Amino acid sequence: METNDFTVFQPQVEGKDLLGLISGYQQANFLYQAFTTGIFECLTNEPQKIEDLAEKMGYQADRTRFFLDALTAMELAVKEGEQYRITPLAKTYLCRDSHFFLGDLLDMQFSIKQGSAWSMMGSWLKGNSTGEGHNPQAIFQASFVRAMAQGVLSDNSIFQTVELISRHPCFAGAKNVLDLGGGHGLFPMALQMKKPDLEITVFDLPQVREVSEEYVKIFEREVYFCPGNFYEDELPGNQDIILAFDILHPVVPAQKEQVFAKAYRALRKGGYLFYKLWFLDESRTKSRRAALFALKCKIINSDSHVYTYREATEMLEKIGFKIEGMLTVGDNASNILVARK
Questions:
Q1: Correct CATH for 16-98 of 2.40.50.100, 1.10.10.10, 3.60.90.10, 3.40.50.2000
Q2: Which of 78, 153, 224, 304 has the fewest CB atoms found within 10 Å of its own CB?
């Protein structure tokens, strides 16, 4: 069909967001492969010759040039004539001696197992059993907890979350905080910086203790680590505040209720629970991050259920909590449900 209408080259809906996802995937893969070469441990603040860098890494100089040029394009290296140095961005997040290092998070996101959940989606949609279920002992290893710590250290959510909680009226009189399944313990450590006499307990599986202790040393905090499994064990009692941040995603509602009943018993009368999650809206389509995460949990464990805010409030009210409302953190639509015993 002949036409002189130029609008045939213009789609009715712009596809730049989809193209951005596709391009972003390519760039993310390049970033990870660059990270695995160890280049960020070789680049320094002082410019180095290509030949010196290539020899240090065991690469061919002519090929290393293209590699370094691509890193420069990604703003992870700076090119000065025929020499290269590291950028502050790469030094902050991609070098192991920085406490903002994202290496474990990168490894987790690009691991074969992490990607396999999405690759199994078609099989899962046909009714096949694809996941291994929820096995906390297998999932919550030190590398996973470090990855979670690296995520919250890099996205500013610690600052935003602590500002919200420290402004709540209960914080001024609080003497202790229990971080339920807290792993790295960074959130209560930041609260302790606001209130130095605050006593902190991190309750989590024994194998993640080493990560909590690493960050205790980095940030020079005083934290008591209480080893345990909240599916099986009771929690330390007489707590003023309990933090339940980003836990219990892939489990069935009955298990969630059992754990929060333990939290209720562990709080003193008048104590507060701060429950932080990517709560789904009532349509279960927002936020994007929550909806994608709910699907991924289902693929891994068909019995899992990510809560809407209403479902979470109903569950907590059934246990005996009084719901005060919700605080919006801002890290990709993460919110904190505030409940009082």
A1: 1.10.10.10
A2: 224
